[in-house]
Design brief:
283 residues, Arc Repressor Mutant, subunit A, D-Maltodextrin-Binding Protein, domain 2, elongated
């Protein structure tokens, strides 16, 4: 008789490609997952995977079995485990600035939300280890166990303190003038500023920031107080520019953009948490 857990292990190995990765996603030991696959193969009388040095490749029998069982497994995994009148709990990982400016206002009290803040790599690690249900990621991470959906495209603007008057329109002269200014960066490597500089001016910016502040909202505040220049996403600075609290120095004709993604484990695509967030946030 086939145990349901054997099928869950089979689907996990099929998606992730390794026994170790499947074991981690299922919170099982590697020997347990290996036993599940071996038991399933013995019961069905077929070989489901080719054992390669670093990967489990599905056989034709494995591909046919996956097609037949995956929908059933996903449906079972999406069945609520709590009583009907208990609010849905969503565990969300996200950058602090994007959450406060763009996401928080979209929740309306229908659900309970437990938020974890962090950078993309640590959020993806938490997602893979089932510490969170979904992650708002500032880049698309190539991982066979993760599915990503486009959520928002941010554009970057170069902004300065209020009342700064820049009359220079020639890019070459503007670049030389900007190099003489004080800069406020998110990190010591100027991750956002240097990417903007390469796209707009076609070269790498070599400068030491006067302030390194790992919070874009605080950078916005520091610029408004006259402490320096920086590059910010439009959702953070457009209203402040319109209100005269920041000065827009450069909004390039060739926009410098970045896609923000909603990421979740493939095995949870039919879960209530994922479906709620997709319906709530996808454009």
């Amino acid at each position: 008789m086939v145990n349901l857990e054997w099928y869950r292990s089979f689907v996990a190995v099929y998606r992730v490609g390794t026994v170790s990765g499947a074991a981690e996603s299922l919170y099982l030991t590697q020997p347990a997952v290996s036993q599940h696959i071996a038991g399933l193969e013995a019961t069905l009388g077929v070989t489901l995977f080719q054992r390669m040095p670093r990967r489990m490749l599905p056989t034709e029998a494995g591909k046919r079995l996956y097609t037949r069982v995956v929908n059933a497994i996903e449906t079972l995994e999406s069945v609520p485990t709590k009583i009907a009148d208990t609010p849905l709990l969503i565990r969300l990982g996200t950058p602090t600035e994007f959450f406060s400016e763009m996401i928080l206002k979209q929740f309306d009290g229908q659900v309970q939300v437990a938020v974890r803040f962090g950078l993309v790599q640590e959020l993806i690690e938490q997602l893979l280890s089932n510490q969170i249900d979904c992650a708002i990621a500032t880049q698309k991470i190539p991982n066979s166990a993760i599915e990503c959906h486009p959520l928002f495209e941010e554009s970057f603007w170069l902004v300065a303190p209020p009342a700064v008057n820049v009359e220079q329109t020639d890019l070459a002269l503007l670049e030389q003038w900007l190099k003489q200014q004080s800069w406020i960066a998110y990190g010591e490597e100027l991750p956002i500023i240097r990417r903007f500089w390469r796209v707009v001016f076609g070269r790498r910016l070599e400068t030491i920031p006067q302030f390194v502040i790992p919070d874009l909202r605080m950078i916005r505040d520091a610029i408004s107080q006259g402490l320096g220049y920086s590059v910010l996403p439009d959702y953070l600075c457009a209203d402040w520019v319109a209100a005269g609290r920041l000065t827009l120095i450069l909004k390039p004709e060739k926009a410098v953009t970045n896609q923000i993604w909603l990421a979740h484990r493939k095995s949870e695509r039919r879960s209530q948490s994922v479906q709620f967030l997709l319906e709530q946030f996808q454009p």
